[in-house]
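REQUEST FORM: STRUCTURE PREDICTION
Request ID: SP-0412
Submitted by: Lab K.M.
Chain count: 1
Length (residues): 67
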Amino acid sequence: MKNVTNADVTPTADRPNTVALPDDQRQRCEVWTRVMGYHRPVSSFNRGKKGEFHERVYFKEERARRD
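STATUS: Completed
RESULT:
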């Protein structure tokens, strides 16, 4: 992987403190999830398991709180 220097990146207009890499220097983020007590990358799931992953409903503490 190539080292990125400040000369290689350009600040974005709407967010001056951030930088935008050119597409050829970007890489996909690998998402991992916990399944049956162990962690696995979502990219290794079969079609059915990927569908289940996208349909998951995540717990939200503020919705479960009693007043």
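NOTES: The CA atoms of residues 10 and 16 lie 9 Å apart.
Reviewed by: T.R.
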